[in-house]
Write a structure and sequence with these properties.
The structure is a single chain. Helices cover 32% and strands 27% of the residues. By secondary structure, the protein is of the alpha+beta class. It has two domains: 271 residues, L-amino peptidase D-ALA esterase/amidase; 119 residues, ArgJ beta chain, C-terminal domain (Ubiquitin-like (UB roll)), CATH 3.10.20.340. The strands form two sheets. Strands 1, 2, 3, 4, 5, 6, 7, 8 and 10 form a nine-stranded mixed sheet that branches. Strand 6 and strand 7 form a beta hairpin. The radius of gyration is 22 Å and the shape is globular. 54% of the residues are buried.
């Protein structure tokens, strides 16, 4: 369905409490050793809302993922409780008990059903979860939630992130102004599908649960599942969205113009979060937005984009600002995508280094200047087809190795 482009107002200081009817909080509970570092977060809807989520495809799943995958099937939800500093994964039956008790305690404090609470966690794998200190902090976390607490919630889910990640935007659905807000964390182990990431989205849009689920899946596929910092998949990643209908727009209950407007805005929020994760990733100094076009179909284009974006040699090439186009061609050949080398072109921003399979050596110095910038676009044309894909990737630096070589 063709719809006009959404005109939205973006709030870079906005977050999960920017939409109407949401409160949040974050604080230090004792999971992290440093008292000034927040390690727990709470997002609460004033009224019951519908929820949708996507979760890691790793066969090793943290206890919070196993719990939330079942809990999200409930018709209504009230809150998301999240912790950082401990993954609560591969740590025995006590980890399962910890998640259940946290859900039970949070529900009791909010006076709602246990299945209305969703749980997210992130941090070190294989470490006993410090349930006692977190339970001790819960009453204060709940009592001090507010409509200004979104930034605190963003801080509470951070691990190696250098700063909180948050955004919100508003747009019109009919005569009603609606808003979508989000917070996220993720700085390493960022690899399709999804990453070591938590992303929590709130909206005051009125929408049915099936259509919210559909929109979240599409938005995640087009953003979070098309980015990479390294080649590792996490055990804890999840994207959860809550919609409480407080904007009082006409309920979105079919795939119509309003649904597509909402989905486009949701994708923009997720794209903002995805780009922030790459930009602020562990050791990242360059972000490359890659566009592959000319493929037989979108699937072929995505194959090529993923292979290039995940290539270690390509990522180290970016780290050194070295326009070694041969590594791009080699990755294309390894991707399994069909392409015509004689029609292949490679362009960094507006600097063309390969055109119709031929090297233009005089442009390499200009390309090197482009690659010294903190962000740029790589456009790879692989034929005359209509298939295209976009993928966001980063360089791989010595700093990344240093961070992850002593993480525990």
């Amino acid at each position: 369905m063709s719809v006009k482009k959404v005109i939205w107002e973006k709030f870079r200081d906005g977050n999960v409490t920017t939409p109407m009817g949401f409160q949040a909080n974050g604080m230090h509970s004792g999971i992290k050793r440093k008292k000034k570092k927040y390690d727990c977060s709470l997002i609460v809807s004033d009224t019951p809302c519908v929820a949708a989520g996507v979760f890691t495809t790793n066969r090793v799943k943290a206890w919070c993922v196993q719990y939330s995958q079942k809990a999200i099937l409930a018709p209504r939800h009230r809150a998301i409780f999240a912790t950082s500093g401990n993954a609560n994964c591969v740590n025995g039956p006590a980890g399962r008990v910890a998640v259940q008790e946290l859900a039970r305690e949070t529900a009791a404090l909010l006076q709602c059903a246990e299945e209305e609470i969703l749980i997210g966690q992130t941090g070190l794998i294989g470490v006993p979860f410090p349930l006692t200190c977190v339970k001790r902090a819960l009453p204060k976390l709940v009592a001090h939630r507010s409509a200004q607490g979104g930034l605190k919630a963003a801080k509470g889910i951070m691990t190696t992130d250098p700063r909180p990640k948050q955004v919100a935007l508003s747009f019109m659905l009919g005569e009603k102004k609606v808003t979508i807000g989000a917070i996220s964390k993720g700085a390493g182990m960022v690899h399709p599908n999804m990453a070591t990431m938590l992303c929590y989205i709130t909206t005051d849009v009125a929408i049915t649960k099936p259509l919210l689920k559909r929109a979240v899946r599409h938005a995640s596929d087009d953003t979070f599942n098309k980015m990479a910092i390294d080649n590792d998949m996490s055990t804890n990643d999840m994207v959860i969205a809550l919609a409480n209908g407080a904007a009082e727009n006409t309920l979105i209950q079919k795939v119509d113009k309003d649904y597509h407007l909402f989905r486009e805005a949701l994708e923009e929020v997720c794209r903002e979060m995805a780009y922030a994760m790459i930009r602020e990733g562990e050791g990242v100094s360059h972000v490359c937005t890659m566009r592959v076009s000319g493929a037989k179909n979108p699937t072929e284009a995505e194959k090529a984009a993923r292979q290039i974006g995940n290539s270690m040699l390509f990522k180290t090439m970016l780290a050194g600002s070295d326009p070694n186009w041969g590594r791009i061609v080699a990755a294309l050949g390894a991707s399994g995508a069909r392409f015509d080398l004689d029609l292949t072109s490679i362009t960094f921003n507006d600097v063309n280094v390969v055109h119709n399979g031929k090297l233009r050596a005089l442009n390499l110095p200009k390309a090197r200047q482009v690659l010294q910038k903190p962000s740029y676009t790589l456009h790879v044309v692989i034929g005359k087809g209509r298939g295209r894909a976009e993928f966001i990737t980063s360089d791989l630096t010595q700093k990344y190795v240093s961070i992850n070589g002593s993480y525990s």
